[in-house]
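ok here's Histidine kinase/HSP90-like ATPase domain-containing protein:
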Amino acid sequence: MRVFNLSFAATPIAVRDALRAAVARFIRLMTEEEAGTLELILAEILNNIVEHGYGDSGKGTISLSIARDGKGLTCSVSDDGAALPPACLDLEDRDPERPDPTSLPEGGFGWFLIRDLATDLGYHREQGRNLLAFRMPLDPIEIRRAG
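and the structure:
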């Protein structure tokens, strides 16, 4: 199992560097498309934390953990910024059709993408800390190496 752990400042530049490091850690275990999907999901989550959780103050830390097992990637992101609004993860009214981006509220399309591309998405806030976890299924490593 491969594991990636990184804590970094809640700034746009630090997010960019964290994305580069996370994708580089697993690039040999994924297709280009899977790497792009991982980068997209993480970019949406991490940039939302910087912009909405800390208000672009840069005063805070984000922790990212990713583990690769035989079925995919398990990812968790934690921070001590503002709480995630419940509507971001509201799966009850999830429309299977892609929404018209102009009909969504601010940030709505990013969360639609996250919910669309990730599985087992969960959020918990405890003692002033946010924990967001998700899974990104990948083809088994053995199949990829054989094909």
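+1. Residues 32-53 form the longest helix (22 residues).
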